Amino acid sequence: MIVLIKGAGDLATGVAHRLKRCGFDIVMTEISEPTTVRRTVAFSQAVYDNTVEVEGIKAILVSKMEEINKVVKEGNIPVIVDEKAKIIKDLNPDVVVDAIIAKDNLGTKITDAPIVIALGPGFTAGFDCHCIVETQRGHYLGKVIYSGSAIPNTGVPGDIGGYTSERIIRAISDGKIIPVSKIGDYVEKGDIVAYVDGIPILAEISGIVRGMLQKDVNVFRGMKSGDIDPRCEKNHCFTISDKARSIGGGVLEAILYLKSML
Q: Which InterPro entries match (predicted)?
């Protein structure tokens, strides 16, 4: 089966990794300037670096259908810059997974493939997709929803180590971000972790920098640009998260269940 995953951020990567391990052929789409903060565990990084490997699985940037077929045949994951996922028409996938995590539907239709799965809020199962996988941390994370919608976006990040909004690194103004701290660095509360047009961004808590945008990425005031993990487990910066694995398991369940119903 061919699975097209729209988006190649860290959560989408968790989904792709699990499905690839289970024998599915994966193709991923991305925008021209990805804004994934957890880029050490995101196949979206291929857009900047051409190739990226996450926990033993490699993704390669491609630009046309012939390259997609070649990369898939070699056992890797092709990533193509295709914001509107126009490749769907030529690829004719068995499954489409909307993993953009935009908190809204940016164009996914239930007719895009025999099985269409969406992640998180902004969709209605049975209307614009066949099912939804819950993305909010907590009791229902990873649950497959076949009727209705996911929990609405609260605007508050999930609790990690007793911190929510404080652990997020946000742009202080519009401009280009220049990181000071690298992913995996330990920082203290009050340390400068990045600059935007010369204006410093300070850490609001102490911990390990788990995510940070690519240098010179365009940001706007208040935009999520990184995150700090108070648990201080450096290995977490370079491995797929519990949240991404849970969502990946939900997508796998949904595919197998819906396939049996076709």
A: NAD(P)-bd_dom_sf, Se-dep_Mo_hydrolase_YqeB
Query: What domains can be seen in the chain, in order of their start residue?
Result: 2-152+242-261 (3.40.50), 165-230 (2.40.50.100)
First-to-last alpha carbon distance for the chain, in angstroms, is 14
Distance CA 254, CA 129 (A): 12
With vertex at residue 113, the alpha carbon angle to CA 107 and CA 119, rounded to the nearest 5 degrees, is 55
Round to whole Å and give the CA distance between 105 and 133. Answer: 14
**Mean pLDDT for the stretch of residues 165-174:** 96
Q: For 30-41, write each residue's pLDDT tens digit.
A: 999 999 999 999
Q: Burial of 165 by CB count in 10 Å (0-12 exposed, 13-18 middle, 19+ buried)? A: exposed
Tell if the pTM clears 0.90, that is, is over it.
yes
Burial of 155 (0-12, 13-18, 19+ CB in 10 A): exposed
Q: How many CB atoms lie within 10 A of CB 174?
A: 13
Written as six digits, the tokens of 238 are: 């370079």
Tokens 């491995």 map to which residue?
Answer: 239
- The structure tokens 């920098």 sit at 209
Distance CA 192, CA 194 (A): 6
Instruction: Tell which residue, 26, 22, 23, has the closest CA to residue 8.
Output: 26
Residues in the chain: 262
